[in-house]
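Friendly challenge for the regulars: who can give me the structure tokens for this chain first? No prize, just bragging rights.
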Amino acid sequence: MQTKERADIGVFGGSGFYSLIENAREVAIETPYGAPSDKVALGEIAGKRVAFLPRHGKDHRFPPHTINYRANLYAMKMLGIKRIIAPTACGSLKPEVKPGSMVVADQVVDRTTGRTDTFYDGPITTHVSFADPYCPTMRPIAIDALRSLDIDTHERGTIVVIQGPRFSTRAESRWFSAAGWEVINMTQYPESYLARELEMCYVNISLITDYDVGLEGVGGIEPVSHHEVIEVFNKNNARVKDGIYRIIEKLDVNADCKCLHALEGARA
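First reply, four minutes later:
Bragging rights claimed.
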């Protein structure tokens, strides 16, 4: 399967974030792993060709555990994309990581079950390093870009990825917080890892929408609802878009990175 369409940078959109590129042209892409979540919107930002794909579909028809992550990533690969920006709505597990702030994550913990999370089922055994899940060249650019817009930005944080679609219990939230993790989300795995298997650079921008289950010990904060998550995300849409635009401006689409060579040494 092939496509003549091309782009330099890919962007995955999450909850409440389904428009990015003005005057975009939508194209349907067929992959060996089935259809992506939706058509891919193609256009230009800061003189660079950008592809945008809503990971849940435009009408939010795919909950986190049913997203075809392999098709979504492979569609980006078919477009020739080497760099992915992935904004997500996330909950906070720490009092200092406040709603409305953004976290440029540096680690991820997978607590999902049953998700297809590799392109390599054999016959050649492939072990791709994932010690540092997020691109070391894109992360500093993202941090500087967000801070240049006066956005409250945390330059590191661990995301624990839960299966969804349900939110955490209080006991689970206490467990995650006690482990020292900062952020909770439902889509960062296997999305981030599949990008690495395809030798693409990948950076996450976590918009903090709430304190998880009220974040016990922080007085007066109640458990979150999906409606409240979307409300906070929508209020911050402009800030998220401005941040992505600034990151795209600063990215060198021709720069080399070790993410682009992830398969070297991964096979016996």
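The first strand starts at residue 9 and ends at 13. The chain has one domain: 9-261. Your move, everyone else.
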